[in-house]
Structure formats: C-alpha cells, structure tokens
From TrEMBL:
Keywords: Membrane, Transmembrane, Transmembrane helix. This is Unnamed protein product. The chain crosses the membrane at residues 98-116. Residues 1-10 have a biased composition (Basic and acidic residues). It comes from the Eukaryota. Residues 1-20 are annotated as: Disordered.
Length: 117
C-alpha cells in the first residue's frame, strides 16, 4: 500500500464530513422553501454552486461510475417527489444519505436548492 494512502483516506473522510455538514445546512434552507409551496425549476448545470459541488465530489472520488447526467436525473426525481408531497422531506433526506453517502447527497442537495430557488 502506498505511503500516501492514509493521507488520501483522511482527506476523503474530512471532505465527506464537511460535505455532510454543508448538506445539512442547505437541507434546512430547502425545507423552508418547500414550506412556502415553491415548485422546482429544471436544474441549471451551469450554476456555479452546482459546478463547484460536482467538481469537488468528482475530485474526492465520490462519483466513480456515476455520470453528471445520472446525478442530475436523481436530483430532478427527488425534487419532483418533494414537490408532490413536501411532508415526506424527512424520508427523502434519510434515503439520499443511505443510498448515496454524504458527498453525493451534498451534491444533490445543492441541486435541489438551486431548483427550488
């Protein structure tokens, strides 16, 4: 095993923890938007916050085997589900974290916030 493996793993864990904390903050903002009855717009992939989150997730190796189009599709599906039944937002959050992990969930939440703004 390379000498730097421990350092890389530590950096990846730190990035995931930071992404998780940011996602939780963004998630609470999103819930407030949902409570006002906002409907989602299509995800703008040129949005700077989205691009940055996507690039960071990609650099951290969290998107292996996942394309940008797949992430966009999951984000848009989550937005539609949340718009249809906003009271289920707690379950959507838990499902995203369990299914995709902290980093990808953070990316999806950034997209959701952009769609509901």
């Amino acid at each position: 095993m390379p000498k730097d493996a421990g350092k890389v793993r530590t950096e990846a864990n730190a990035a995931a923890a930071q992404a998780s904390a940011a996602a939780k903050t963004n998630w609470h903002k999103l819930v407030e938007k949902l409570k006002t009855g906002r409907q989602p717009k299509p995800l703008d992939k040129s949005n700077m916050e989205w691009r940055t989150a996507f690039t960071n997730a990609e650099k951290a190796g969290q998107l292996k085997g996942t394309t940008e189009a797949q992430v966009v599709k999951v984000t848009e599906d989550a937005a539609q589900a949340m718009a249809k039944n906003p009271s289920k937002w707690r379950y959507v959050w838990k499902t995203l974290k369990i299914t995709f992990g902290a980093m990808l969930t953070a990316l999806i939440v950034v997209g959701l916030n952009a769609m509901f703004s």
